[in-house]
From TrEMBL:
Protein name: Carbonic anhydrase
Necessary cofactors: Zn(2+)
Residues binding Zn(2+), per UniProt: 38, 40, 92, 95
The enzyme's E.C. designation: 4.2.1.1
Pfam families: Pro_CA
Organism for this UniProt entry: Trichoderma asperellum (strain ATCC 204424 / CBS 433.97 / NBRC 101777)
Cofactor: record remark: Binds 1 zinc ion per subunit.
Domain of life of the organism encoding this protein: Eukaryota
Summary of the function given for this chain in its UniProt record: Reversible hydration of carbon dioxide.
Catalyzed reaction equations: hydrogencarbonate + H(+) = CO2 + H2O
Organism lineage: Eukaryota, Fungi, Dikarya, Ascomycota, Pezizomycotina
Family assignment from sequence similarity: Belongs to the beta-class carbonic anhydrase family.
């Protein structure tokens, strides 16, 4: 099904600039924002922020957890030093990962993968935007110049509005 859809898209596809072309044009430095958000297919930041292709980095994971995105944030920060002006963590209403407290999510995951990885599961933070922001700002692995560049938002899937979490 997806390959068939792609054939239709590819028929009218306009080439996307190569990284080398963007670098030659000095446009790689324009990517200054990272959006960390959930994999939920109802919540697409390119839609609710009206983004154009290549306008921001988007990192998606279950729950939009910033800890899961850290590897990518650190790699991009190393590749493009000091490029991030803003890191935006976006969670959304009616998210499956918000239906559980830490212990409930732990139990759910342990039931699926077993007790063998119990210690690793216990170290996962499943909570919301505020916890993500607190973790990011206090983490020793986050470069100091990035700690004050993180913001938290909630996307309401019913209204389409995005509100800042203070």
């Amino acid at each position: 099904m997806l390959l068939e859809r792609n054939r239709e898209v590819a028929a009218t596809h306009e080439p996307i600039p190569l990284v080398t072309e963007l670098q030659a044009q000095g446009k790689m430095g324009e990517l200054t924002t990272m959006v960390v958000t959930c994999v939920d297919p109802r919540c697409i930041p390119e839609n609710y922020f009206n983004l154009k292709t290549g306008e921001v980095f988007v990192n998606r994971n279950v729950g939009g957890n910033i800890q899961y995105a850290m590897r990518d944030i650190l790699i991009l920060n190393a590749a493009f030093p000091d490029s991030f002006q803003e890191i935006i963590v976006v969670h959304h209403t009616d998210c499956g990962s918000l239906r559980f407290k830490d212990d409930g999510m732990d139990k759910l995951v342990k039931n699926v993968i077993g007790e063998a990885h119990s210690a690793a599961i216990d170290n996962v933070a499943w909570a919301g935007v505020v916890n993500d922001l607190e973790w990011f700002r206090s983490s020793p692995i986050v470069p100091k110049h990035m700690k004050d560049k993180v913001r938290g938002l909630i996307f309401d899937i019913q209204t389409g509005k995005v509100e800042e979490v203070k």
